[in-house]
Amino acid sequence: KNKDLYLDSMHQKNSSFEINNSELKNTISKHIANSKKLEEKLKYLEKSNNIELEEKNKKIKFYQDENVRLSGELLSSQKSSERIKLNLSDIEMEKEKISNKIKELNRSIDEKRNVISTNFVKKDSNINDKNLEHLNDKEQKSLDEVISRIFKKL
After folding, report:
1. More reliable by pLDDT, 117 or 35
2. Most confident of 15-24, 35-44, 95-104, 115-124
């Protein structure tokens, strides 16, 4: 009887171990399946993060290239602007020189007109000699003003 009790006890323990073992196998199987799902999710997330990183790197590269291009254009525009300013300054100086030469020529002509009398002028009783000699200060200033306005328009 002892032996039967012992065998029965062993059989129950064995049965209990088998149930335990089966439960452990089920639990391990669930953990393995869960682990595989987590691993797949992790791979998917890594892949999507890599794709996102690549896209962001492409955008960064694009904006860096665009920044370099725009900087080059800005520098070119600044140089062009400086050249234009210099050219305008030169033109203004030339206009001033031409204006001054015209004024000098005008004065020279007035002075020569005073020295050389012409036979082409008819002496009329209504015209006095004073008008023919040279311009007074008011008339000269008016002429200089007209010349200045002409060159300001150019």
Report:
1. 35
2. 35-44
To the nearest 10°, the Cα dihedral for 22, 24, 27, 33?
-80
Nearest to 150 by CA among 86, 103, 87: 103
Q: How far is it, in rounded angstroms, from Cα 46 to Cα 40?
A: 10
Q: Are 151 and 91 in contact (CB under 8 A)?
A: no
Q: What's the pTM?
A: 0.44
What six digits make up the tokens of 138? Answer: 């008011």
Nearest to 148 by CA among 96, 106, 107, 111: 96
CA 129 distance to own-chain centroid: 69
